[in-house]
Design brief:
With 340 residues, the chain is mainly alpha-helical. 58% of the residues lie in helices and 0% in strands. α7 packs antiparallel against α8 (208-235), α8 (208-235) packs across α9 and α8 runs antiparallel to α11. Has a role in transport between endoplasmic reticulum and Golgi. Its main location: endoplasmic reticulum. Keywords: Endoplasmic reticulum, Golgi apparatus, Membrane, Protein transport, Transmembrane, Transmembrane helix, Transport.
C-alpha cells in the first residue's frame, strides 16, 4: 500500500488535527531523514550546540545597554537650581519690594504715615525741649555777631538798650542787636575748651582726659549758676520778663572774655591775662546791668513798689558781680606760672 503524503495532509485537514512543528527552522533546513524524530529534538539541538566564547548572536533586535530606570527621586540637578540658594518662594524679592514701593498708593500711605510720626515726635519733643524758642535764639547772621562782640567789649558808647517788639514777640537777634542770643555763648564755650587744651599743651600738661574734665566742669558750673538765678527769682518773688534761656544767654557771654584772656596769656603771660580779665569784667558788668534793667525793672511800670524795685536791683547786681568771679575760676588754672 502506497503512502500518499497529500492524502495524509487532506486527512489532517479534515480531522482538524494539524501536525505540531517544534522546530521552526525545519522547513528551511535540509529534508528530514525518514527516521522518526523525537518531540525533544529542538531541545537536544540547542543543548548540543557548541559553546561560543564570543558575544551571543543577535536575533533581529538590537537592545542597547542602559541603566535601569530609577523609580525614586531623580538625582540629576534641575535646570536653574542653585543648591547654595536658601531663598524660599514664599518671601518677596527685592525687585518685588521695589515695584511695590513704586506704586502711587503705597507711596502716599508711607508719606502720610511718616508725616504723622514726625508730627507726634515733635509734640513729644516740645514737652521737654523748647525747639521753637531755640530757633529764635540762634537766628543770627554775621553782622549781628560782629555788632554783638563790639557791644560786649565797648558797651560804654551804647545809648539805646531797649529791645524792639513785633506783634507776636521781640524781634529776632539778626534784626535787633540788643536781643540776647545763644549762638555766641555756644561758640565761645566750645572755643574755651580748645584754647584750654592749647594752653595746657604749651605747658606740657595736656592729656586727652583734660578736655573732657574741663568741658564737664564748665558745663556743671553753668547749670549751677542757672539754677541759683532761677531760685533767686522765685524766692524774691520777682515777676520779670526774663526767660530761662535769656538768663542762659546773658551768663554765657563771659566765655568771650575768658577766651581772650587765656589766649593773650600765651603771649604776655600773667600780665596780659589779668589786664584783659579786669577790663572785660568791667565791660561785661556794665553790659549786664544796662541790659537786665529794662527786663527786670521796666520803665514807666507803675505797679512796682519801692521795696520791690530794690529787690530787683539787688538781683541785677548779683548777676553782674558774680560773672568776674566765675571768669577767674574757669581760667586761673590755665595760666602759666612765673617759674615756667
Amino acid at each position: 500500500m502506497n503512502y500518499n503524503h497529500s492524502g495524509a495532509r487532506r486527512g489532517e485537514l479534515l480531522t482538524g488535527k494539524p501536525k505540531r512543528i517544534l522546530d521552526p527552522s525545519a522547513g528551511l533546513s535540509a529534508p528530514a531523514s525518514s527516521s522518526p524524530q523525537s518531540p525533544y529534538v529542538y531541545n537536544q539541538q540547542v543543548g548540543s550546540m557548541p559553546m561560543n566564547s564570543g558575544p551571543p548572536p543577535e536575533y533581529g533586535f538590537n537592545m542597547p545597554e542602559q541603566t535601569p530606570p530609577s523609580y525614586g527621586f531623580s538625582t540629576a540637578p534641575m535646570p536653574g537650581y542653585n543648591p547654595n540658594d536658601t531663598r524660599t518662594e514664599g518671601f518677596t524679592t527685592p525687585q518685588f519690594a521695589t515695584q511695590l514701593l513704586a506704586e502711587p498708593m503705597v507711596t502716599n500711605m508711607a508719606v502720610q504715615y511718616g508725616n504723622a510720626l514726625v508730627g507726634s515726635g515733635k509734640q513729644q519733643l516740645e514737652k521737654y525741649v523748647p525747639v521753637t524758642a531755640l530757633k529764635y535764639y540762634f537766628a543770627v547772621d554775621t553782622d549781628y555777631v560782629i555788632a554783638k562782640l563790639s557791644l560786649l567789649f565797648f558797651p560804654f558808647t551804647q545809648r539805646d538798650w531797649s529791645v524792639k517788639y513785633e506783634q507776636d514777640g521781640p524781634l529776632q537777634p539778626r534784626y535787633e542787636r540788643n536781643a540776647p542770643d545763644l549762638y555766641i555763648p555756644t561758640m565761645a564755650f566750645l572755643t574755651y575748651v580748645v584754647i584750654a587744651g592749647l594752653a595746657l599743651g604749651t605747658q606740657e600738661r595736656f592729656t586727652p582726659e583734660q578736655l573732657g574734665i574741663l568741658a564737664s566742669s564748665a558745663l556743671a558750673w553753668g547749670i549751677i549758676e542757672l539754677i541759683v538765678h532761677t531760685i533767686t527769682l522765685y524766692v524774691m518773688n520777682l515777676d520779670t520778663s526774663l526767660r530761662t534761656l535769656d538768663l542762659l544767654a546773658y551768663c554765657g557771654y563771659k566765655y568771650v572774655g575768658v577766651n581772650i584772656a587765656v589766649f593773650l596769656s600765651l603771649i604776655f603771660q600773667q600780665l596780659g591775662y589779668y589786664v584783659v580779665l579786669l577790663y572785660f569784667s568791667i565791660s561785661l558788668a556794665f553790659f549786664l546791668i544796662r541790659s537786665l534793667k529794662l527786663r527786670v525793672i521796666p520803665e514807666g511800670h507803675s505797679s512796682y513798689t519801692a521795696s520791690g524795685n530794690k529787690r530787683r536791683l539787688y538781683f541785677i547786681l548779683f548777676i553782674a558781680s558774680i560773672q568776674p568771679l566765675l571768669m577767674w575760676w574757669l581760667s586761673f588754672h590755665l595760666i602759666p606760672s612765673k617759674a615756667t
